[in-house]
Amino acid sequence: MTLRSVDLRKEPVEAVLDRVERSLGTALDRESVVRKRRSVGARTGRGTWVRIERRGLDRIGVQGGDGTASAEALSGIAKPAWFAGVAWRDETEPVIWRADETELLPGAPVGNAVVTKEPQLAEEWWASLNASLNALATQQTSRIATPDTETLTQELVTATIHSVFPGVDTALGEWCPAHADFNWANITMSPFCVFDWEDWGMAPRGLDAANLWGASLAVPTLADRVCGERRGDLESRDGRLMTLFVAAKILGPYADPDDPRLKAARETAERVVKQLQER
After folding, report:
1. What does pTM read for this prediction?
2. Which residues pair with 55 in a beta bridge?
3. 128-133 mean pLDDT
4. What is the pLDDT of residues 151-194, one digit of tens each?
5. Could you say which architecture CATH assigns to the domain 14-103?
6. Residues 6 or more apart from 132 whose CB is under 8 A from it?
7. pLDDT tier at 272 (50, 70, 90 boundaries)?
8. Are 276 and 168 in contact (CB under 8 A)?
9. pLDDT reported for residue 16
10. How confident is the model at residue 149 (pLDDT cuts 50, 70, 90)?
11. How far apart are alpha carbons 71 and 196 in whole angstroms?
12. What is the pLDDT of residue 159?
């Protein structure tokens, strides 16, 4: 059966919300519902948050789609606690639905995934970001990151980079745990907290830093700050390759001609390609 493309911002989800309420034993505040392309979230009657995701069976893999639950074992990271989860197979499509109940966020997200205006972030915020990413890199896991629900492999990195920067040596060497969807929509403003852990797992060093850099390019001072804070990651060989990986997604065949990040992504990528060639 072919999996149809679905945008949950446009699909009816009342039956799904009803099932989650029955399974978790709590009411969902329908006025608090937040819809995204492949997930729906809502506040519960017991003061928690539930995130519901629709994911095709072909994107589940050996990890089972339990990223948020498995992230509860991570330590030293500012993130909401996980309390409960429920999953089921769709009756008519090759799809898994999963709902995870977590602690409420301590604040509002910084912004959209990509920001166009500089957020006012305290020095303590940056310190917490660094502490969390440094702690994450020391954890142990057999999970493999699935950015954009695709399992991250050497082959995927090579194909993505070569689609825009052919000929670059893309051999990866240093892998460590990453959030894998690290952007401004998944991080709170005050205090720092990172959420939506569905895709976390092992990834080349620098993936999270490169993702945040790419999400900041429309605000040059913010992109520079990200680079400065995560210099150790981004100036490593794998970090440079992750910069090209992210840049290739911005600049590739599906690039938006109105994307304000295009020029900065191109300029940085060209510099990084030269740096890799000189090593």
Report:
1. 0.93
2. 96
3. 98
4. 999 999 999 999 999 999 999 999 999 999 999 999 999 999 99
5. 2-Layer Sandwich (3.30)
6. 76, 77, 78, 79, 192, 194
7. very high
8. yes
9. 96
10. confident
11. 10
12. 97
Domain map (residue ranges) of the chain: 14-103, 123-278
- Tokens representing residue 244 in the block: 């090209």
Sheet with 48-56, strands from edge to edge, namely 34-35, 39-43, 48-56, 95-103, 82-89
Are 213 and 222 in contact, with CB atoms under 8 Å apart?
A: no
> For residue 19, what are its two tokens?
């099932």
* DSSP per residue, the chain: -PPPP--TTTS--HHHHHHHHHHHTS-B-GGG-EE-SSEEEEEBTTSEEEEEEEEEGGGTGGGTT-HHHHGGG--S---PPEEEEEEEE-SSSSEEEEEEEEEPPSS-BSSSSS-SS-----HHHHHHHHHHHHHHHT-----B--GGGSPP-HHHHHHHHHTTSTT-------EEEE-S--SGGGBBSSS--B---TT-EEEETTHHHHHHHHTTTTSHHHHHHHHHHTHHHHTSHHHHHHHHHHHHHHHSTT--TT-TTHHHHHHHHHHHHHHHHH-
At the second CATH level, the architecture of 123-278 is Alpha-Beta Complex (3.90)
User: For the chain, what is the radius of gyration of the CA atoms?
Assistant: 19
The C-alpha atoms of residue 235 and residue 221 are separated, in whole angstroms, by: 18
In the block, tokens 């520079």 appear at: 224
53 has a pLDDT exceeding 90 = yes
Rounded Cα–Cα distance for residues 184 and 113 (Å): 5
Model pLDDT for residues 68-83, shown as the tens digit of each residue: 999 999 999 999 999 9
What is the pairing mode between strands 39-43 and 48-56? Answer: antiparallel
Amino acid present at 255 = A
Which residue has 């995560």 as its token pair? 230
